[in-house]
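quick one, 117 residues, struct below
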Amino acid sequence: MTYKEFKREVFAIYNEAFLGDDKSPIEYGIQRAGFEEKKLRRLIVLADQTTFSTAKRKVAGWRRQLERVQQIKARLELRKREAPASFAEVNRITSTVPLPLIENRAKRAANNSALTS
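---
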């Protein structure tokens, strides 16, 4: 493989678009991190197949990026696992503690509709 072909392959990999689902932000982030991880792995494999010193220097940066992406993905997966527990806690608290602000708004809305009728 010539250096020009290597650069062409790298350019093609860099320009691949991510088409993620429109889900929760955490799920989107996990999918995006997985996509970036695959791209970086392909770049590293491509550079390992060449003998160019420039490619070897780029591999070090791609490996650092890969580590960061893996850390981000792990953090998001942890948040995803913790999220249902935190939502359940909030629901438990709001179901046991009356919220006077909401109750007052409901009463005012009922009074206003009774006055305007």
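The mean pLDDT is 82.
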